[in-house]
Amino acid sequence: MTTDLVSIELRKAGRSRIEEVDFNNLPFGKHFSDHMFVADFADGHWQNLQVVPFSDFTLSPALSSLHYGQSIFEGMKAYKNEEGEVLMFRPLENWKRMNESAKRMCMATIPEEIFMGGLEALLRVDADWVPNTPDSSLYIRPYMFGTDTFLGVAPSKTYRFCIFTCPVGAYYTKPPKLKVETDYIRSAPGGVGYAKCAGNYAGSMYPTLLAQQAGYDQLMWTDATEHKYIEESGTMNIMFVINGKLVTPATSDSILKGVTRDSIIQVVRSWGIDVEERKVSIQEVIAGIEDGSLTEAFGAGTAVVVSPYSLIGYEGKDYMLNEVPKESSLANRIFNFLNDLRTGRSEDSFGWMHKIV
Ligand code: COI
Q1: Are 30 and 140 in a shared domain?
Q2: Domain boundary among 170, 202, 227
Q3: 187 and 111, same structural domain?
Q4: In angstroms, rounded to a whole number, what is the distance separating the alpha carbons of residues 313 and 239?
Q5: Residue 353 lies in a domain
Q6: For residues 89 and 139, is the Cβ–Cβ distance under 8 A?
Q7: Atom 6 (ligand 1) nearest CA
Q8: Which positions does the record annotate as the modified residue N6-(pyridoxal phosphate)lysine (predicted)?
Q9: CA-CA distance, 301 to 256, in Å (whole number)?
Q10: 21: domain CATH number?
């Protein structure tokens, strides 16, 4: 098969597993579609571009990325409109960010035509897996890891780039409770916080587990130097509504530049609402909850979409966030706007939707 962009070999699964999936009950990240896209980087170029049945890899025990962590990924989503067409949301932003992560981790970068060609070929063959049930979508996981077999800390010379997909429902089934983390850090200036590398997630698991054992769902990371300013949450960027303005931590080399975050900022500005990207101290947030000037706090990300928080825990005290009526909630307005845009129910005024043809 030849896609519009690059030549990709297609080997189809003998039997589809789609009948085994209940599309009205889609836990996050548990069901994998029939196929995956795979490409290998060797001898200085990408080769063996294939769409093949979703299946295991055979890996060397000495695989460099298992030891030294050259492993990066992206998260993106595809949707179906009422005509049954498949639409991706801002895929080039993920391609750009993946290459920023690759550069920071000293890995091969991926040409646009391979990233987009692989995505398009995969979504064409697995188009039936894109849900059209409410609040569902096809989560897309592009990722890349070093495949050299050696011991010793040096960049791999070979890489595998793979994309697989999962039909998913909501990431959080109820508003999460966030704990402000002031002991552990996710990232520090000069580090890899802005890169979507596997190690950032591994490092967050132990502090998150401690928070979960204390009754919270997720962490709100603070800056590495003073533990004074809010950074991000690991699964999402963080946004507040304070005095009617949308306020969010400015991105830096320790915060992931979320595509959903950027989209929300553009949408909210287009509505004439002020947006402030700046340092946000935890003291400002707590004071805002206490005096009522902070009316909403929510996470923004591909997986979580827009997720209002139910409480914020800080230094042993829980601060409840009052549920805002749907008609006056900015988070709800943003969620509905993005949902209508992504499912083709409203005009794509930003030119963000990419149709698979
Ligand atoms: C995403 O939002 O796509 C992420 O990668 C976050 C992860 C929690 C699934």
Answers
A1: yes
A2: 170
A3: no
A4: 16
A5: no
A6: no
A7: 235
A8: 196
A9: 10
A10: 3.30.470.10
Query: At which of 117, 149, 170 does a domain end?
Result: 170
Q: How many CB atoms lie within 10 A of CB 162?
A: 19
* Ligand 1 close to Cβ of residue 299 (< 6 A): no
Domain of 296, in residue numbers: 177-342
Q: Is the C-beta atom of 313 inside 6 A of ligand 1? A: no
- Determine which residue's CA is closest to atom 7 belonging to ligand 1: 235
CB of residue 258 inside a 6 A radius of ligand 1: no
The answer to whether the CB of 207 is under 6 A from ligand 1 is no
pTM value is: 0.95
Does residue 36 come out as left (phi exceeding 0), alpha (psi in the -120 to 50 range) or beta?
beta
CA of 75 to the centre of ligand 1 (A): 6
* 37 in the same domain as 91: yes
Atom of ligand 1 nearest to the CA of 303: 2
Exposure of 254 in the CB half-sphere (CA atoms within 13 A): 19
Q: Is residue 182 domain-resident?
A: yes
Instruction: Say if residue 135 is in the same domain as residue 208.
Output: no
- Greatest Cα-to-Cα distance within the chain, rounded to the nearest angstrom: 62
Query: Which pLDDT tens digits describe the chain residue by residue (357 residues)?
Result: 444 578 999 999 999 999 999 999 999 999 999 999 999 999 999 999 999 999 999 999 999 999 999 999 999 999 999 999 999 999 999 999 999 999 999 999 999 999 999 999 999 999 999 999 888 999 999 999 999 999 999 999 999 999 999 999 989 989 999 999 999 999 999 999 999 999 999 999 999 999 999 999 999 999 999 999 999 997 999 999 999 999 999 999 999 999 999 999 999 999 999 999 999 999 999 999 999 999 999 999 999 999 999 999 999 999 999 888 989 999 999 999 999 999 999 999 999 999 998
The conformational region for residue 46 under phi > 0 = left, psi -120 to 50 = alpha, else beta, is: beta
The Å distance, Cα 74 to ligand 1 centre, comes to: 8
- The answer on 192 and 292 residing in a single domain is yes
Q: Quick one: 209 and 118 in the same domain?
A: no
